[in-house]
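Because showing beats explaining, we let one protein speak, sequence and backbone structure tokens together, and leave readers to judge.
___
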Amino acid sequence: MATIIKKIFGLFAAVLLLLTGCTNDMLDEINTDPNNPTDVSVELLLPHSTMSMVNLAVASKQAQWLSTYVEHTANVRLNIMHPADNVGTYWNDNYLNLNNLSIIIDKASAENKWFHVGIAKIIRAIVLAQLTDLYGEIPYKEALEGSNNRAPKFDTQESIYTELQNILDEAIADLSKTSISSPGKYDLLLEGNKDLWVKTAWALKARYYNRLSNIDSQSSATNTLNALSNAFESPSENLVFNGYMTGNVNINPYVAIEKREQAFAASQTIMEVLNGFNDEGYADPRAERWFRKIGDEIIGAPSGVNNPDQSHAIYSGISMENVLNEDAVLPIVTFVEMKFIEAEANLRLGKTAEAYDAYQVAVQQACLASGLKEAQVNEYTAQGTVFPGFSQLSLNDIIEQKYIYFWIFQPVEAFNDYRRTGIPELQNPYGVIKRFPYPADELERNPNSPTNIDEQTIYTIKVWWAKN
């Protein structure tokens, strides 16, 4: 795996240039090198798009900065992290990947490489969902027509959520077809495990059904549970990227920004959520693992204000040994998330015993995933505030424990949960954004861009599925 990942990273830029190169006929002839291929196999295109999804969507700079907006961390670098910064790069990167994924799907379909098609459609769903979750209405149906349509219409988020389920249904069907080849080692996430890719598609369906809890609470819960019956079944079944390497090259992007900018500190909010489950005198062992101490204390920084502290002398930094190590695994969608979703869906349907069972498993596995030993997990969960009994279990318990689990590598999902439920209570005195602003160049060149979204209204206009 390490060897193929090194090769893929090395070819990343070259393939990007090939896929985005000039299309003028004369220039194409001038730039043609008869000794180099002008066509790229799906075996190479698929890992390229996989890494684009991993690094330019799930672990993008926008995602990293969201950790401060959702108050998983507080910004202690020299400059503020403004919502409008870098949105153009994020937008362009992910639309480029959607285009590349379409190339993979078309090419692999023509070659009867249905395994590749199924994976590409699942990655398409992840990228498309993140775009619409962060921006709201976005171009999709007309977005990939290139020069044939330079002003694509914006699709409603409702229609895109319908399309997400259709894409995943298609992926599941494609994965069941006879394929002439398997991606094998070129599948950088699951190494050609078809069964796990099918379960991943069902897990994503559950995630996106659950997102609609404010649209139709009962149907959302029922559809979620139906999807979960086909999703991950054990803590060993997850979609993660575990190919980052030590040595300052190809390292986890969250680690890269911290090493470069010393940007993150523990927030007061994450400390309050952690401590909210503790009995008097008890210290959550996750906090001990995650944060550096100032003297004998873990000190969280306030949110919404710029408190430069790049030496981490005032506020507790993030542990580089236990958390921000260079080859840290990046979760994308996991068994633990599914158990939290199962708990929430059952709670909405009034199935409190089933909700409590799923919640207990979720919390236990979340603690183990953080690096705690079994004895520490048992001590933590023995507190009545952690496992209050099925009759006392609340949505607040589920979402706050899920919020802790999502720290630090899944701020996008924590942000989605916050906008959907209002949990936990965030502390930014200036308010919390409800979406990202559209890139300036998109607004300038596309007359179909929404005119009511700007750097002020992103604090007031919610996305379709969010809580009022």
About this structure: The chain has one domain: 2-248+327-459.
